Amino acid sequence: MLYILDTANLDAIKKAYDLYPMSGVTTNPTIISKENRSFLSILKNIREIVGEDSMLHVQAVSTTAEGMVKEAEYLTETIGGNLYIKIPVIPEGIKAMKILKKKGIKITATAIFTAQQALMAAVAGADFVAPYVNRIDNISGNGIRVVEEIVQLFELHNIDAKVLAASFKNVQQVHEVSLTGAESVTVNPEIMDKMLEHPLTDWSVDQFIKDWENVYGEGKITLDVE
Ligand code: G3P
Cα angle at 120 between 117 and 126, to 5 degrees? Predict the structure, then answer.
């Protein structure tokens, strides 16, 4: 399972990379706009934090294949490192994916709401496909079921593209997606923190420390005692 952070907030990225086993960062135009500063600086700052090898997914905003390809080439040159260009699964996007595949530029197909969109994107050359789980749930669909179908289709058709499930409102959705066999999830910083939260974990850790300190002294750790 690859854990990816869905944010452009530098503090949140630093925190998650410090604590958790992160494999990358995803952004989209909405996420970028929330930072309300120079687009290129945001991306360069993220690259500095995560390093060259970590995945960074950046979305093109053109609505024509020609524009998307130009943006993809520009971003590849300017940002560099392990970069994936997010392309929405509109017809011009599929056309752009075919072109970008030939150019060796890595693609994340995004704004996916159906398994057939994911399948066509993968056939067109996408490396990752990003179904929007919570947005599907919010239109009375079943986001987890769509992810299951994508996983199943990729197995049936021997497709190498990976699933990057996105748009989560809670930890349970992430858990259910993990059970489908999807290779990766992108979650916002709040959900990333919540993945580990459990009152009994905190209670147990407190109890261990209390019992230890009763015998070995306050603030002592294993290497302080005989
Ligand atoms: O990466 C796509 C994701 O950002 C969409 O999430 O929470 O806006 O539905 P959300």
Answer: 100
Instruction: Give me the count of residues in the chain.
Output: 226
Residue given tokens 């489908």 in the structure block: 180
Q: Is 103 a catalytic residue?
A: no
* Confidence (pLDDT) at 40: 97
The Å distance, Cα 134 to ligand 1 centre, comes to: 8
State which ligand 1 atom lies nearest to the alpha carbon of 167. Answer: 6
Q: Which residues of the chain have pLDDT under 50?
A: none
Residue 103's φ and ψ, nearest 5 degrees, are: -85, -5
Is the Cβ atom of 162 under 6 angstroms away from ligand 1? no
Domain 2-195 in CATH 3.20.20.70? The answer is yes
CA-based end-to-end distance of the chain:
40
User: Does ligand 1 have an atom closer than 6 angstroms to the CB of 9?
Assistant: no
Does ligand 1 have an atom closer than 6 angstroms to the CB of 173? Answer: no
| 224: DSSP letter | G
Active-site residue identified among 86, 95, 162, 169: 86
Q: What's the pLDDT tens digit per position in 122-144?
A: 999 999 999 999 999 999 999 99
Sketch the domain layout of the chain as residue ranges. Answer: 2-195, 196-226
Q: What is the pLDDT of residue 46?
A: 98
Return the pLDDT at 106. 98
145 lines ligand 1 (CB under 6 A): no
